[in-house]
Amino acid sequence: MTRPAPNILLITTDQQRFDTIGPHAPDLLRTPHLDHLAHEGVRFDAAYAQTPICVPSRVCMMTGRSPFEHGMIRNGSSTSVMGRTETLPALLGDQGYTTAAIGKMHFTPPRARHGFDEMTLPDDYYRWLRESGIPERPMRTGLGQNELYPGAATVPAPLTLTSWIAEESMRFIRERRDPTTPFFLWTSFSKPHPPLDPPEPYASMYLNAPIPEPRYGDWSTDERCPEALLRQRQKHSFDLISPEVIRAARAAYYGLVTHIDYVLGSIFAALQDMDLFNDTLILFTSDHGEFLGDHHAGNKVMWHDVSARVPFLLRPPKSWRTGWHGTTSDALVTHADILPTLLAAAAGTPPDGGEGLNLLDVLSDQATPRPFLCGTAGEGPGDDVPQYFAITDGRWKYIWYPEGPSEQLFDLAEDPHELTDLSQKCDVAPHRERLTAYLREHTPNAVSEQGLVRIPPRDDSVADRRASSWPGYHTEWSVPDVRH
């Protein structure tokens, strides 16, 4: 049956953990609008960022290709891997869609459209503040982009970037879109990424709530922690932050999540007012998670669930009558699936070669879910070997760290919080061999005749690491940055 082309709303957040929605979330967390999306659609419970870093995840969304295909495994220039013709907005444009991006795109250069008809960026937000004569300045707490410390917004809620992104999205829906064509709108929030600076009432909403304590794996001691993660947490001194500060940081983080959820209600109201809500496909996800004190760590990058696993909701138009509403799926999904899924909804065909799956076919049993998913991430420019290679089949997760080397194995069914490393107790060979076979085909330089690539430990002391941190001091619109 041929369906009319739906309007498409892609909503992304930045650095939002998977356990902030659904049954994984603490009971105290208030997310009524995301809950409503789940009631009307499908919640994917095994969604992962293959490279849990901002730009690589966005490139996956835009191209339908995995990091093993497009090659971006650290933050960098989007123009080096994306053009204007085979991106998600360009392909939807070919199907007759008006396309718009509002919020944090993290493209380089920032105004590179990569196929969008129009873009409204955080730079425009700062310009609006200045030209409006508003004396307050946002993010003037002094907290940086990768710091795990709580703060509070220096502007009231209506003047935050989060609220402005929602207002601009509403304005597009109500005033700026072409009413004669379907639209594709990517609304991209920059929170709950640090700085952890929610405005009131969100800043105090969870201060006295029973905030869940961080979880620490038996492998997370300095003696057992893989060197790549140990170096990251020591560089940022995440491991020295007191439990009291971690608790306050978590309360601020939850406040930022709720702020986003509440402004989503305004966007949905705009769709409803324009009689578009029921005919719009809505997909919600985040680019990666956040350790938030778990395993004595902060930030993201690594392939533990708190960092790599993301919320993922797909709500089809009500007119489709799929019967998917209120359901869950344990299919392994990732950001590369967004392009073929949304393009299929628009009756389009994705380019050849991408690893992304059309999730509409998966849900309809017309396509087989992937048997496994792989992940990797680089550290910085000049590093020849990534920090890790990983693989999961949804039950078992195996991570290989070339430095040392070291490895980890987790049984996600019995140990969902990855508290027990089984690599010394269980046979890792089948998982290692499966990962090796995949890398041999997709990343040949990650495999030698002896197996997975190995590198010796670096000769850097703890003091060296703590002195080399870049916690992300950039907090102003005028400083270009592609590093956080």
From TrEMBL:
Entry annotated with the keyword Transit peptide: no
PROSITE patterns: SULFATASE_2
Domain of life: Bacteria
Keyword Transit peptide among record annotations: no
Residue intervals of the Sulfatase N-terminal domain: 6-346
InterPro entries hit by this protein: Alkaline_phosphatase_core_sf (IPR017850), Sulfatase (IPR050738), Sulfatase_CS (IPR024607), Sulfatase_N (IPR000917)
GO molecular function, one term: arylsulfatase activity
Keywords assigned by UniProt, alphabetized: Calcium, Hydrolase, Metal-binding
Family per record: Belongs to the sulfatase family.
Name the UniProt record assigns to this protein: Arylsulfatase A-like enzyme
